[in-house]
Design brief:
The complex is a heterodimer. Chain A is about 75% helix and about 5% strand. By secondary structure, chain A is mainly alpha-helical. In chain A, helix 2 packs parallel to helix 4, helix 6 packs antiparallel against helix 7 and helix 18 packs parallel to helix 20. Chain A starts with 14 loop residues before the first helix and ends in a 5-residue tail after the last helix. Chain B is built from 21 helices and 2 strands. A two-stranded antiparallel ribbon of chain B has the order 1-2. The radius of gyration of chain B is 22 Å and the shape is globular. Classes of the chains: A mainly alpha, B mainly alpha. Chains A and B meet through helix 5, helix 6 and helix 7 of A and helix 17, helix 18 and helix 20 of B.
Chain lengths: ~525, ~500
């Protein structure tokens, strides 16, 4: 088998299966415990997510950052007739998103502490979602991956639907239908690929894509007389693209996001923005780019236009919002738009130019960092919003506040840090990902990168606007008694804020682990 | 040993009729015991015969002068479907635990129905198969006409008439095959091995295929199904949609396609873009998929949603059959199993868990009842069944549809788009029904519900658990079934089909 081959730790201790199973066991435990003692439920759930975090940190520590290929692999026969085996493994990218997930889920749980209705079900669904996320991030063949990709929708749907705001029925339905349409398109494309190659394995298919043998095989198998071979390849590509484009999201498939993020309870929004949206970016990196980049090159300009639109229009719309959650929902679209910009830049044909290849490495690293940092920062921001909602009884409009820094100084200070991180202030984690993306993309796709800078500027404007409208200015009478952060909240925020500074000042913490994978991924895109 | 599934079912029905009508516990117990024993037999047989090859169960000369034998055989495909019948049979009894009107006759008819279904799946002599096929119709009528609900006499009559018309078409085709081959034998093997002229096959095939197709819900001959399944009592709906419709699909595969494979060959000319019966039925199947889903999307009656969803899912089976490649055909067989389980589950929730308590199936009326709070188990079961039904991976529907879709890519890539629409519509109607029936009152119902409904009983929970586990097993380990289905598809019986197809 070629491609990122199977290296060490084959069939040794099944870390990844355990990591997938732990949250599921937790979900069952939580459901079994029943409804009476809510505190017990919450702490049990948090405990299981803490175990997951611990396991992930063990993996982080034992990961060999200089090795090629996938580590901690497990391989078992599953459905020989479909050439599907149970194969899991992670490289730097997988490890990174696993770490992000195991940080974001506890944050989401902590932000959901004030949920009082159907508590066991809520936390069980959160844990099930975590299982699905881990499953997606460790799967190495389409069948296995698709199971978890689809299953993740169910807990997400119910979390939004049952505990959400007044518009949650419509939002949840929109979320589901959008994602399903994308998934069906993606499924059909991959089935066509399976028909032509008889494999669902990502590495094998990627190798064929890179050798240039994939599309001829697909075309010869499908025998569509109405379309030219090139067009057949593009149709298959668009099918797969749609599935991921909806998830990230890419303009114009983003319209489900703002309502869903706003209507969901804030604890769920944390999971949606911190972890689920990364499924989309991960999919772009793991699946779409290695397999379909010849097709991406053909339609690169339209794709870049979509990325630019995603970046700029979402920032512009964020500026017009009055609901804090909607502001940061649109801001999420904007931040992940940078990732897509960089991915498309990396896909560009550069003909083996060494200098440009180095830029691609930078852009790739930027994507990885931006994924992680955005997940962390966005999760924290929505956590602050949850804390605010708890104190104000659900009020979270931009114009409802003012002068809060006088009443809740610690809250202001810490949320301010998170806001500046989102803005991309150097010294905080949000800067380095964006910097690398822009640095890498500028030489590759200058016009698109230049236009995307507008997004940076508008983001700065609306974030400063939030700070000014919420924290500065005259204080309204009804908020004069607002309690500041409790000791528990401060203690739980410290590691997160600390991490923001640590990553901002010393990004090597992450880069050291993922850099090799980023370079390998960029190098595998052989230009022809 | 497999023959005992038939005998025990019939004997059980007879024994039931001898019991006093008042001993309800005894009646239910005997019915359950009978279905459990037959299920155990099918399970043992499935586990024993790993090779999937055809083997003889029983073979006695019957009417020797006409070459008719009492001949029962089974291969991988039959074993899979027998197992399905066994599971649904048991669960049907469990979900009928609350029947309190003429219980004896109810379970007697039920067991006769199951026994006849076993008979059809096991028959290798076509006369015998036809006899069992006809026997199936009689208990169906009574179950619907006596214990049914909405417009039951009309529905029962419509269902029976359609079934008889279908069987009549089949009978003509079978007699023609018998006569043309020299009137020696009615054994499937002998008849399939005879080389009928292509001209003969060209009209015999569609006749027999449509004849069986009527029972399989082939569009546009499907209209009996939603009416009939809605009118039927829960256990009957489970059996009818879950198993009896599969008799039709089974007949299409086992009889029509093996006897007259050349009937699928191209005509040499095209009508509206269709060049063979294969094209015709493939297109009709796709229409069934999309039409069934779209009609389900606008229903107000909860049970009608499920009734039309059966049409849609059966369309997948028929489409899989028309792909004529191994993966599509195996996908069709797995879909038979999958839909059998899921139809059973869906009708159980709608009919038994919800309707028998709320006495309404009107979706707008169910919403205010806050069923997700009042009947959480029913809500949970419907969510799982619904997800599985729409093809969520990890459940049986996905595994089956995956294989069928691959087969369709191979044979009919242009139809893929429409199938995709059908898939999305499938998501939509399930989600709509689920929302309206269970979650219309959500989010966060602070006050407790005013009208508590009787809680879900143990037999219902057990039945639901069995069916859900079955779906998960089929979905995560389809290899178990593929191991026996593939050798069956590669057997000499399907030789003619393979020569033309894959």
């Amino acid at each position: 088998m070629e491609g990122p081959g199977m290296t060490q730790d084959m069939n040794s201790f099944p870390w990844l299966t355990i990591l997938t199973a732990v949250p599921l066991v937790g979900a069952l435990a939580v459901l079994a415990l029943g409804g009476r003692n809510k505190a017990l439920i919450r702490w049990t759930a948090l405990g299981f997510s803490a175990i997951s975090l611990l396991v992930t940190l063990i993996l982080w520590h034992s990961f060999n950052s200089a090795a090629d290929g996938f580590q901690f692999q497990e391989l078992h026969a599953w459905i020989p007739s479909l050439n599907v085996s149970y194969r899991v493994g992670i490289d730097g990218l997988g490890l990174l998103v696993l770490l992000l997930t195991s940080i974001v889920v506890p944050i989401g749980m902590l932000a959901s502490w004030q949920i009082e209705e159907r508590v066991p079900l809520y936390f069980a669904l959160v844990l099930m979602l975590q299982t699905c996320l881990v499953g997606t991030f460790t799967a190495l063949n389409f069948f296995h991956w698709f199971i978890f990709w689809e299953l993740a929708l169910i807990p997400a749907f119910f979390l939004v639907r049952l505990w959400g705001g007044s518009g949650s029925a419509k939002a949840a339905m929109q979320f589901l239908v959008y994602t399903m349409v994308g998934s069906v398109a993606m499924l059909l494309s991959f089935l066509a690929i399976f028909l032509s190659t008889n494999t669902f394995d990502f590495s094998e298919i990627a190798t064929m894509g890179q050798n240039g043998t994939l599309m001829p095989a697909v075309v010869s198998k499908l025998g569509w007389h109405l379309l030219t071979p090139e067009h057949v390849a593009l149709v298959i590509f668009f099918g797969a693209l749609l599935g991921f484009a909806v998830k990230v999201p890419l303009f114009p498939f983003h319209t489900w996001l703002p309502s869903t993020y706003a209507e969901a309870p804030s604890g769920t929004t944390i999971l949606l923005t911190g972890a689920m949206s990364k499924m989309g970016v991960y999919g772009f990196l793991r699946i779409l780019l290695p397999i379909f980049y010849p097709q991406m090159q053909k339609v690169l300009t339209p794709l870049l236009w979509l990325a630019v639109a995603t970046v700029v229009l979402s920032a512009y719309t964020a500026m017009a919002q009055k609901d804090l959650k909607r502001i940061f929902a649109y801001s999420s679209i904007n931040h992940l738009g940078y990732c897509l910009l960089a991915i498309f830049a990396v896909a560009k044909y550069t003909g083996g130019d060494a200098a440009l290849t180095t830029q691609k490495f930078a852009a790739m690293n930027g994507v990885f960092l931006q994924m992680f940092n955005h997940g962390l920062t966005a999760a924290t921001l929505f956590w602050f919003i949850a804390m605010l909602e708890k104190r104000t009884g659900g009020v979270r409009g931009l114009d409802d506040f003012g002068g809060l820094r006088k009443v809740v100084p610690v809250f202001t200070g810490l949320m301010g840090i998170a806001l500046f991180s989102s803005l991309g202030l150097p010294g905080l984690n949000g800067f380095i990902g964006e910097f690398l993306i822009f640095k890498g993309s500028f030489p590759l796709v200058t016009w698109a990168t230049s236009l995307s800078v507008i997004g940076l500027l508008i983001t700065a404007i609306f974030i400063l606007g939030v700070i000014q409208r919420v924290f500065s200015g005259p204080l309204q009478e009804k908020w004069a008694q607002l309690p500041d952060l409790t000791l528990g909240e401060r203690l739980s925020l410290v590691p997160v804020i600390g991490l923001m500074f640590a990553l901002g000042l010393y990004p090597q913490l992450i880069l050291g682990v993922v850099n090799h994978t980023a370079i390998q991924m960029a190098l595998h895109l052989r230009n022809f | 040993m497999l023959a005992w599934t038939i005998y025990i079912s019939f004997l059980g029905a007879l024994a039931l009729l001898l019991l006093p009508s008042r001993s309800t516990a005894l009646i239910r117990g005997l019915a359950l015991l009978t279905s459990l024993v037959t299920f155990a037999i099918t399970l043992t047989a499935f586990l024993q015969h790993r090779s999937g090859e055809m083997f003889t169960v029983v073979d006695y000369p019957w009417i020797s002068s006409l070459g008719i034998h009492f001949s029962l055989k089974a291969d991988g495909i039959s074993l899979t479907l027998l197992l399905l019948t066994g599971v649904i049979g048991v669960c049907g009894v469990l979900f009928s635990w609350n029947v309190d009107h003429r219980i004896k006759e109810f379970f007697a008819f039920y067991l006769v129905l199951i026994g006849a279904v076993y008979g059809v799946f096991l028959s290798f002599d076509l006369f015998l198969l036809f006899v069992f096929y006809e026997i199936v119709v009689i208990p169906k009528y009574f179950l619907i006409a006596i214990w049914g609900s909405t417009r039951r006499e009309y529905a029962a009559m419509k269902l029976v008439l359609y079934s008889f018309i279908g069987s009549a078409m089949v009978l003509v085709g079978l007699i023609a095959a018998y006569v043309v081959s020299g009137s020696h034998s009615m054994s499937l093997g002998d008849l399939a091995g005879y080389n009928y002229s292509p001209h003969f096959q060209m009209w015999a095939f569609p006749l027999v295929f449509v004849g069986f197709g009527v029972l399989a819900g082939l569009w546009p001959f499907h209209t009996w199904a939603p009416t009939g399944h809605v009118a039927a009592p829960t256990a009957a709906s489970m059996l009818l949609a879950g198993v009896v419709m599969k008799l039709g699909a089974y007949g299409c595969l086992r009889v029509a396609m093996t006897l007259f494979p050349l009937g699928l060959a191209p005509w040499g000319f095209h009508v509206l873009g269709l060049g063979s019966w294969r094209d015709v039925f493939a297109v009709l199947a796709v229409i069934g998929i999309v039409y069934g889903a779209l009609v389900a999307l606008v229903q107000k009656d909860f049970k009608f949603v499920i009734g039309y969803s059966s049409i849609s899912h059966m369309g997948f089976i028929l489409l899989g059959l028309m792909t004529l490649n191994q993966i599509g055909l195996s996908g069709a067989v797995v879909q038979m199993v999958s839909h059998g389980i899921l139809a059973g589950l869906l009708f159980a929730v709608v009919g038994r868990m919800v309707y028998s308590r709320t006495h309404t199936r009107d979706l707008p009326a169910l919403g205010p009842m806050h069923l997700s709070k009042v009947l959480p188990f029913a809500a949970f079961t419907f969510v799982i069944a619904g997800m599985a039904s729409m093809g969520l991976p990890g459940f049986s529907g996905f595994a089956a549809e995956l294989m069928i879709l691959i087969g369709v890519w191979h044979s009919y890539p242009t139809l893929i788009l429409f199938v995709g629409i059908g898939l999305i519509a499938g998501v939509a109607y399930i989600w709509r029904a689920m929302q309206q029936a269970f979650f219309a009152g959500a989010p966060a119902l602070a006050t407790p519900p005013e009208h508590p409904l009787p809680p879900i009983t143990f037999p219902e929970k057990l039945g639901a658990a069995i069916l859900i586990c079955s779906s998960v097993i089929v979905g995560t380990f389809p290899q178990i079934f593929l191991n026996v289905i593939h050798p069956a598809l590669n057997s000499p019986l399907f030789q003619g089909l393979r020569n033309g197809g894959w």
